């Protein structure tokens, strides 16, 4: 049997309480240590049962999943999606005052697509509020480097649609219920204070092949 990737629960790039007062420490601890860990364990179990999938990257697994029989493809897209989406979500945030603003090539693309950073924030918030039930709002780049917003249900990603994710916003209730209860709009407004625009700019540059 070939060696198989064993995915590890990558540590948060900041302390659990680093996003206070906007995102509380207990939410971050539960979200990382329980939710992302569970998806990581689920993905590893799936790879053990399907050694033919071993050796692929997370992105490679997610692009392949829709092409597989549903018996394997559906659980694979859920578990690999849960790992990919949470890693990106945690990397999409930074302690208040440290995330910068949309600048450089990202800033120019934001202005072209949304008019201004405020226009992007408003449109992203509206997208996040439009998700019914569990899912994500995404800022992504198409093959021409244009920015667009998408939403996905559950743990789906825009990768099989050929889009390159720049940042994502987790609107599953577990992302905010401990602090914001059922007030998703309050959570989204708080979240805008901890966006890591520097990481988004680096990701956008990678998407554009710059
Ligand atoms: Mn989550």
Helix and strand succession?
HHHHHEEEHHH
Mean pLDDT: 96
Euclidean distance between termini CA atoms:
39 Å
Residues in β-strands, percent: 5-15%
Q: What ligands are attached or bound here?
A: manganese (III) ion
- Record the strand order, biggest sheet: 2-1-3
> Tell me, what's the shape?
globular
Low-confidence stretches: none
> How many DSSP E strands?
3
Based on the structure, what is the oligomeric state of the protein chains? single chain
The largest β sheet comes out as:
3 strands, antiparallel
What is the helix tally? 8
The structure class reads mainly alpha
Fraction in helix: 40-55%
Key phrases:
8 helices, mainly alpha, binds manganese (III) ion, 3 strands, 210 residues, three-stranded antiparallel sheet
Structure explained in plain terms:
The protein contains eight helices and three strands. It is mainly α. A three-stranded antiparallel sheet has the order 2-1-3. A hairpin with a 5-residue loop joins strand 1 (135-141) and strand 2. Helix 1 runs antiparallel to helix 3 and helix 4 crosses helix 8. It is globular and about 45 Å long. It starts with 24 loop residues before the first helix and ends with a helix. Bound molecules: manganese (III) ion. The site of manganese (III) ion has 7 residues, from helix 1.
């Amino acid at each position: 049997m070939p060696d198989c990737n064993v995915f590890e629960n990558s540590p948060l790039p900041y302390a659990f309480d680093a996003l206070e007062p906007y995102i509380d420490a207990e939410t971050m601890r539960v979200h990382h240590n329980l939710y992302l860990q569970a998806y990581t364990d689920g993905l590893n179990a799936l790879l053990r049962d399907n050694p033919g999938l071993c050796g692929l990257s997370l992105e490679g697994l997610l692009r392949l999943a829709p092409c597989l029989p549903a018996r394997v493809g559906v659980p694979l897209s859920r578990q690999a999606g849960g790992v990919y989406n949470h890693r990106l979500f945690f990397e999409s945030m930074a302690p208040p005052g440290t995330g910068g603003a949309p600048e450089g090539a990202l800033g120019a693309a934001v202005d072209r697509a949304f008019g201004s950073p405020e226009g992007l924030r408003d449109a992203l918030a509206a997208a996040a509020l439009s998700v019914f039930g569990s899912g994500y709002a995404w800022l992504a780049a198409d093959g021409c480097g244009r920015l667009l917003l998408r939403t996905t249900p559950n743990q789906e990603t825009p990768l099989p649609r050929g889009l390159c994710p720049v940042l994502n916003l987790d609107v599953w209730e577990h992302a905010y219920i401990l602090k914001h209860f059922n007030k998703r709009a309050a959570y989204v407004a708080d979240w805008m204070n901890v966006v890591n625009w520097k990481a988004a700019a680096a990701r956008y540059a990678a998407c554009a092949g710059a």
